[in-house]
Amino acid sequence: MASDTGLFIQCLKKPQNMRTDKDLKVIYSFLHGMEALSGLREHALQSLCNIVRYEFHEANDIIYYQGEVASCWYILLSGSVFIEGSMFLPRSR
């Protein structure tokens, strides 16, 4: 799993226009196994693979403030996040 996650992150860090078919397959394979994305049709998930990107945030970084309109959403790979006083952890694959 750790090496799978490492390869996934490596593929996500590549500029979107530099990703190979192999990179897109790695990204698809990882995203396909996520419960949050299980309702997406294959074409939608493949489209997502072309635009998804990797971000790293330090502890205590604020990503959104209450009331802000979000322009994207995040998949938590490690660590935890607090939302309205509740802590959320990433699910294991």
From TrEMBL:
- Tell me yes or no: is rRNA-binding among this UniProt entry's keywords: no
Q: Which GO terms describe its cellular component?
A: cytoplasm; plasma membrane
What is the protein name for this chain?
Rap guanine nucleotide exchange factor-like Protein
Per the database record, which ranges form the Cyclic nucleotide-binding domain?
36-83
Species name for this entry? Answer: Elysia marginata
Keyword annotations from UniProtKB, A to Z: Cell membrane, Cytoplasm, Membrane, Phosphoprotein
Q: Which Gene3D superfamilies match?
A: Jelly Rolls
Q: Could you name the domain of life of the organism this protein comes from? A: Eukaryota
Q: Which PROSITE patterns match?
A: CNMP_BINDING_3 (PS50042)
As for subcellular location, the record says: Cell membrane; Cytoplasm
